[in-house]
């Protein structure tokens, strides 16, 4: 740890020579996805936001639920990035799966999204594994009604050939989503009621066989319904917000990697929370957050008789003070988390508590140099974890900006809320379902050190170049390893599981992003990122081999007039290797005489072209989008046994009526 | 990035750029504006037309189905660049083997294209369109009677005004339906269209 502290002090020393004057959001490394970017880009669901984050790698088996590797802070194992909505933490994670689509928000409500890919304190959380904070538009005075309908169709149906020897299985619609919100706003308060309905088929040939074997009925469609209510008010000189929602997912196929297949469940995710801020004195504001959420996996009738028997209760609270004085901003806070598991399994401990103390200090040394240092200490069950980060911002001149970020953080096993944590405490779901697992070594708190150096050049008003070099050092990670075999009887995959504690390794990465505007109506962005492991044993390297080394995207946005836009994106991911699936290489599942799914441990690299055309009508009250995904109709997938995504067309219609 | 992967990406770009139909349509659509097009403001006018349509090509698809005769109805208006058209084409196909169902395709589409003035009021137009092919089968039941698939078409034709705002049109089109086994159809069409100024309320809506 000493070299780490030394490096952090070097970072502090670097900044103390100069000073800064830019707003804090330029000091701290964070990406912002604006409503305009969301509007123009080809997004259909909240989970699609991940498609717009260039420095996060993503992965999916079904096209509905995504895994992320946030800026090299973790691989696809250990999904510990945090989701926040308007200041409240949203808990949609279960068994290493975070389902962003279950967040109670519609795409068109979003004002902007903060994407945090470097460790730092944010809204009472230490984002050591990444954080996405969705901020919604505050309802305007009066009454507004907004509706959104999304219809998606993937190509590849049999069509009339169903009556011939060329018959192939039907391809289901890939979206049948609808959103409705009613806003009521007054001078000092507002209310928003919303209802989101989403429908997704889990019938891609690659998964159709194993899914249909778990059901006595046609796999068909998964549906989710998300009602929510948000009320905000100005009082005590500040703002306060209440949010409640009851997301419900019926026949959701949860891909549980340890058992190598999807299990149908009914998932309930009720949430209730309040947060706000008010001035305590002329220079001090108080912010508070309190939320309570349940994550329940209910049994959906299935031939495996699989029942998760899982009901997790999560309480999150924190309060912090924020004081400003000339050149200084100081924040201190305390927080508390409690998670309780209700299950029929006999648990040695059914709950855990985490206490937090944190602080953040931002200093503007001069007009061109700023520094931010933050730290957090966590307590749980007599153990502590220390987390700290420092960022420095140096505006060398009008053209060049240099940012450095260093962090060191420990992470308690409780923070992960992982299947292995609960399995060790008696949640015996795996063994009851004949899945063997062995833990080698100890699963202790892990350590992580990160270092990032970013150089931003403003060539002129229309052209910027940003380059970043990154380093990550991990130790005491616990990682899973499996060796799946294909079972031709029910088209599933099975393997015992080994969990290795005490794993360490190092990762480096580089990014370059070019942002250029030809004219106000025509802009384009090019980004490229590279990640590779440079040290670690085979387990560590195998886990990181599932992350594409190369990722690139090119986006073009053309808005010749205010009411018409064309957006195009070419994105590229390099090939990935999944060692857990080496034994299924070349296995073929014949869905129908003309259609087979071939499984492989290597997911090939692919370039995809997406195109969206958007037209506003009736002064913006009616918006129509026509979106084409995978225009080149490439055979591409993200996961060795996951769905492939053919050319698809989406029609989106939005209606906005206000008083 | 491995060399092989780079080559695949480059090859894909080249395929797109040298694909003959796409190259032809791209060149045609990006040619300089005709005087008529330059004088038009977006949504200034409407052109409403109906065409009689016949299928002219032969391929594996036609081993199973014989084409009937169809109609195409559309409404077109000048856009910020070129023009846009919304319409639908209804076309029946008749099964040629036992067990092969008759069916109709309703192609609901959006087109974008450009037109140029040639000789003596004769206009030449080209369009690219995308849309949904709704297939309605004689056999089957419930939802099973319907199928929906993405389609794309390119068309080229001429238009000649015969009386005041009425024009006679003749065009050919090439359609691809993206079923698992793609359906490729060529059509010839002839018909009439009527031009009028866009009503104020509709122009406000479209803008």
**What is the mean predicted local confidence, pLDDT of chain A?**
90
- Main sheet: strands, sense, barrel of chain A: 25 strands, mixed
What is the highest CATH level, the class of the largest domain in chain B?
A: Mainly Beta
CATH class type of chain A: Mainly Beta
Rg of chain B (CA only): 19 Å
Provide the CATH superfamily of chain A. TonB-dependent receptor, beta-barrel domain
Q: How large is the radius of gyration of chain A?
A: 25 Å
**Number of DSSP E strands of chain A:** 42
The name of the CATH architecture of chain A is: Beta Barrel
pLDDT under 50 segments of chain B (min length 5)?
12-20, 30-38
Number of helix segments of chain A?
8
Principal-axes shape call of chain B: elongated
Most extensive chain interface and residues per partner: A-B, 38 and 40 residues
CATH topology annotation of the largest domain in chain B? Porin
Summing up helix and strand content along with how strands pair, one would put the structural category of chain B as alpha+beta
Taken from the alpha-carbon principal axes, the silhouette of chain A is globular
What do we call the CATH topology of chain A?
Answer: Maltoporin, Chain A
Spatial sequence of strands, sheet with the most strands of chain B:
1-3-4-5-6-7-8-9
Number of helices of chain B: 5
- The H-and-E topology of chain B, N to C, reads as HHHEHEEEEEEEEH
Number of domains of chain A: 1
């Amino acid at each position: 740890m000493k070299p780490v502290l030394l490096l952090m002090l070097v970072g502090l020393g670097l900044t103390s020579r100069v000073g800064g004057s830019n707003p804090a959001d330029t000091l701290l490394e964070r990406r912002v996805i604006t409503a305009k970017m969301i509007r123009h880009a080809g997004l259909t669901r909240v989970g699609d936001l991940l498609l717009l984050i260039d420095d996060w790698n993503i992965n999916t088996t079904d096209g509905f639920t995504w895994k992320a590797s946030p800026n090299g802070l973790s691989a696809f194992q250990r999904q510990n990035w945090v989701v926040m909505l308007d200041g409240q933490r949203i808990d949609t994670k279960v068994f290493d799966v975070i389902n962003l689509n279950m967040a109670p928000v519609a795409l068109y409500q979003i004002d902007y999204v903060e994407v945090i890919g470097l460790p730092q304190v944010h809204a009472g959380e230490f984002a050591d594994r990444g954080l996405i904070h969705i901020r919604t538009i505050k309802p305007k005075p009066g009454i507004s009604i907004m509706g959104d309908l999304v219809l998606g169709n993937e190509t590849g149906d049999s069509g009339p050939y169903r009556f011939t020897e060329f018959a192939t299985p039907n391809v289901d619609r890939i979206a049948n989503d609808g959103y409705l919100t009613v806003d009521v706003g007054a001078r000092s308060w507002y209310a928003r009621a919303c209802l989101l309905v989403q429908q997704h088929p889990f019938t891609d040939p690659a998964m159709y066989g194993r899914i249909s074997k778990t059901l006595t009925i046609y796999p068909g469609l998964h549906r989710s319904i998300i009602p929510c209510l948000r009320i905000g008010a100005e009082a005590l000189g500040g703002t306060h917000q209440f949010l409640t929602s009851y997301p419900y997912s019926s026949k959701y196929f949860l891909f549980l990697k340890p058992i190598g297949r999807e299990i149908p469940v009914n998932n309930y995710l009720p949430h209730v929370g309040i947060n706000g801020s008010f001035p305590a004195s002329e220079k001090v504001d108080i912010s508070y957050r309190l939320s309570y959420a349940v994550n329940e996996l209910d049994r959906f009738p299935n031939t495996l008789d699989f029942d998760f028997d899982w009901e997790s209760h999560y309480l999150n609270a924190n309060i912090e003070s924020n004081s400003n004085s000339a050149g200084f901003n100081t924040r201190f806070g305390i927080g508390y988390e409690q998670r309780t598991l209700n299950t029929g399994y006999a648990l040695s401990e059914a709950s855990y508590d985490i206490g937090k103390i944190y602080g953040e200090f931002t200093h503007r040394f001069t007009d061109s140099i700023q520094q931010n240092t933050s730290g957090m200490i966590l307590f749980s069950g007599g153990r502590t974890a220390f987390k700290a980060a420092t960022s420095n911002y140096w505006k060398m001149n009008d053209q060049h900006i240099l940012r450095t970020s260093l962090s060191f953080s420990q992470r308690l096993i409780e923070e992960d809320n992982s299947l292995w944590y609960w399995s060790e405490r008696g949640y015996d779901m795996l063994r009851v379902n004949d899945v063997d697992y062995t833990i080698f070594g100890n699963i202790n708190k892990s350590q992580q050190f990160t270092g990032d150096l970013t150089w931003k050049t403003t060539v002129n008003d229309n052209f910027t170049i940003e380059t970043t070099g990154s380093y990550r050092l991990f130790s005491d990670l616990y990682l899973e390893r499996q060796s799946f075999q294909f079972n031709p009887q029910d088209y599933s995959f099975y393997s015992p599981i080994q969990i290795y504690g005490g794993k360490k390794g190092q990762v480096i990465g580089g990014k370059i992003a070019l942002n250029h505007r030809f004219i106000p109506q025509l802009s384009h962005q090019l980004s490229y990122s590279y990640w590779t492991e440079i040290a670690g044993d085979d387990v560590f390297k195998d886990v990181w081999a599932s992350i594409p080394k190369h990722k690139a995207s090119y986006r073009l946005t053309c808005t010749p007039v205010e009411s018409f836009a064309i957006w195009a994106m070419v994105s590229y991911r390099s090939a990935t290797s999944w060692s857990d699936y080496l034994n299924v290489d070349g296995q073929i599942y014949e869905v129908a005489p003309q259609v087979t799914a071939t499984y492989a441990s290597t997911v090939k690299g692919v370039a995809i072209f997406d195109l969206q055309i958007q037209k506003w009508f009736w002064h913006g009250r009616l918006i129509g989008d026509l979106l084409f995904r995978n225009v080149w109709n490439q055979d591409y997938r993200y996961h060795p046994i996951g769905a492939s995504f053919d050319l698809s067309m989406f029609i989106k219609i939005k209606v906005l009526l206000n008083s | 990035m491995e060399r092989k992967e780079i080559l695949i990406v480059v090859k894909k770009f080249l395929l797109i750029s040298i694909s003959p139909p796409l190259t032809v349509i791209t060149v045609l659509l990006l040619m300089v504006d005709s005087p008529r097009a330059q004088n038009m403001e977006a949504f200034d006018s409407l052109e409403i037309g109906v065409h009689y349509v016949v299928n002219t090509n032969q391929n594996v698809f036609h081993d199973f189905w014989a084409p009937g005769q169809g109609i195409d109805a559309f409404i077109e208006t000048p856009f910020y660049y070129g023009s846009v058209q919304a319409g639908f084409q209804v076309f029946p196909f008749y099964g040629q083997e036992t067990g092969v169902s008759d069916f109709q395709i309703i192609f609901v589409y959006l087109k974008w294209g450009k037109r140029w003035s040639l000789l003596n009021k004769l206009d030449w137009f080209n369009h690219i369109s995308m849309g949904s092919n709704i297939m309605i089968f004689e056999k089957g039941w419930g939802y099973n009677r319907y199928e929906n698939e993405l389609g794309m078409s390119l068309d080229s034709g001429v238009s000649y005004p015969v009386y005041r705002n009425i024009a006679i049109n003749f065009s050919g089109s090439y359609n691809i339906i993206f079923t698992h086994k793609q359906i490729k159809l060529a059509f010839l069409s002839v018909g009439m269209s009527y031009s009028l100024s866009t009503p104020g309320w509709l122009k406000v809506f479209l803008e």
